[in-house]
Amino acid sequence: MHKKAYLCLVIATLCWGGNAVAGKLAVGHVSPMMLTFWRWTFAVAIIFAISVPQLIRDWPIVRKRLPILILYGVVGYTTFNATLYTALKYTTAINVAIEQAGIPMLIFIINFILFRMRVSLAQIFGFSLTLLGVALTAAHGDLGTLLELTVNFGDALMLIAVVAYAVYTVSLRWKPIVDWRTLMAIPALFALLTTVPLVLWEQASDQAIWPDTRGWVIVLYTALFASLVSQVLYIKGVEGIGPNRASLFINLIPVFGTLLSVAIIGEDLQLFHIAALVLALGGIAIAERGKPASP
């Protein structure tokens, strides 16, 4: 069966659920772009330390497929994380966790538009429920705010992050056939390079906060678990069961993120958070059970 892929995806989403909590704990201890920069600095140092011989062997393939690997780093790593950490300055870790439930739905939409993936009525209904759950969270329980365009700025930023990671996941169908270390190292390097101008901008605008003791602990967590462990396991999971089915596991991020936010940060669990979780996870369950039969 696909038990190994399932385990990889569960651990990956647990690490990402913790990433939202880490980003919230980082506020005041390390600024968003500084966190993103140091996260990828440590991640690149670690992955290259164990990958150089393999990178040399894979270089002929990497050279031909460099654009897609750069895309992974710029969109999936830098854009997603820099936007997420910035969003956490303005909204809660619970909100950020739940809003990531919109990623699988968007992946299905992109796949349908680009590759004409078959969609059933049950899937349309299920993903509509997921969208409602995300909207409920973004509107802080009051959907009327969406009509008045008063959604929290942080929640609006998370929409950008959601789009970025959906694009990244869909694009994994074109990943080159190389060792997992190479597939992690090259995008991580370009994630680091594209973070440099962002941290310089943050410094120039007098918004940079150099990590203190807590900040460095958070940097190390994000480098090891939210970067290396989670990304490698996610790629393994996608290899095992495909991007569409693997994307459904992203809906564990709201569960893990919400529980960790309440347990570690002490954030309040509101009724609309519970309703949003039920809608998001229930919608995914309906969509998965109602998926079209394979031709």
UniProtKB/TrEMBL annotation:
Name the record gives this protein: Membrane protein
Topological type in the membrane: Multi-pass membrane protein
Compartments (UniProt record): Membrane
Ligase in keyword set: no
Annotated source species: Pseudorhizobium pelagicum
Main location: membrane
Membrane keyword on record: yes
UniProt keyword list: Membrane, Transmembrane, Transmembrane helix
Superkingdom per UniProt: Bacteria
